[in-house]
Every structure is written in C-alpha cells, then in structure tokens.
Amino acid sequence: MNTLKAEKRSLDTKAKKLRREGYVTGNVFGKELKESIPVQITKKDAERLLKTCNKGSQIMLDVEGRKLDVLIKEIDYNSMKRQIDEIDFQALVSGEEVHSVAEVVLLNHEKVVNGLIQLKLHEIAYKAVPEALVDKVEINMENMKIGDTVLVKDLDIASNEKIHLMTDPEAVVVTVTEIHNKAVPEEETAAEEEK
C-alpha cells in the first residue's frame, strides 16, 4: 500500500497561498475522527502518488506520524494551471462499508483496428468494506471486434461477493462500433478535378 506524508494545515493560511508555495491542500474526514483534519501535502509528493493511485485508491496517510488507512475520495484538478489543487480523504474503519469508485482501464486497445472504441463509463460505483476495495477494473480489448459490448455485469467486480455495485449492472461500459467515413458526393469530386 502506498504511503503519503501530510502535515496538519493551519486554517489561518489561505489555501491559495499554500498552493503558490508548492502545496496541495486537503481534508481527512471519517466516522471515527472527532473532526475533519485539514492537511497540506507537497505538490511533488501528491503528483508522485497520483501516477499510481487515483480516486478510489486506498492508501496510508501519514499525518505527522499518525498513520491513517484512507480512501482517496476526491481530487480537484485545475486544468487551467495543470495542477492538483486539493485531495480529500476518507478515514476507513475496518469492517465498515464505504462508497467508492473503481476506474475503468482498457488494456490492448491498440489491437482493435477495425472499429471505434467507445468508453461509456469511466468509473464503477460500489460499496465495500476496506479489505475488499478495488481501485481499477481492467478490460482486455485484444479480441474485441465490431459489435462487441461489455456491460458492468460482465466485469470481475460484479461477481465479487464482497462488493455491492451501485452502478447499474446492465449499464454499457465499453463498446466497439463501426467507423463511418462520410462519403464525398461525386459532383464535388468532379468539380475539384476540373480546377
């Protein structure tokens, strides 16, 4: 499990100022915490973590020596500045179900050459105890052809007895459709050749 170091953040300092100083702000909340803990993480550490983890990932958060088993609940990304602004964490309680999401990852998509891959769902919502959390659902596209569709109920996560799906099992996750090229009318081609 990945560990991320964080410091408690003083609410006297504005989040904007901390971001300018190279920090990502965040909050840790949870049932067994008396109150949420405002935190700050160095931008470098946050970026390194998000290379391997994402929303729905379970990590160990080290807040000034206090280790917390947490779920990455939300990531606020500023696309204008191309930076992470905030990450929120939910402290997990062993044996207690939490709402989470698993990111859909397509493997071998480059091997589908005759069709157009359409990813309809980027994440699958579910409830599970901390021990059963899943942060990614992988779909191997290698043998898929035009007309093939993968539904939520076709995924491994749907047959996992420890996971309660919140996303409709009949929902389409990914489909391969025919590529339709628009034909140019003959008159236009003839007119072009005359020029």
UniProtKB/TrEMBL annotation:
Residues 4-89 form the Large ribosomal subunit protein bL25 L25 domain. It comes from Marvinbryantia formatexigens DSM 14469. GO terms for molecular function: 5S rRNA binding; structural constituent of ribosome. GO terms for biological process: translation. The keyword rRNA-binding applies. Keywords: Ribonucleoprotein, Ribosomal protein, RNA-binding, rRNA-binding. CDD domains: Ribosomal_L25_TL5_CTC. One of its GO terms (cellular component) is cytosolic large ribosomal subunit. The lineage of its organism: Bacteria, Bacillati, Bacillota, Clostridia, Lachnospirales. It holds the Pfam family Ribosomal_L25p. It comes from the Bacteria. This is Uncharacterized protein. Residues 101-178 form the Large ribosomal subunit protein bL25 beta domain. InterPro entries: Rbsml_bL25/Gln-tRNA_synth_N, Ribosomal_bL25/Gln-tRNA_synth, Ribosomal_bL25_b-dom, Ribosomal_bL25_C, Ribosomal_bL25_long, Ribosomal_L25_dom, Ribosomal_uL5_bac-type. The keyword Ligase does not apply.
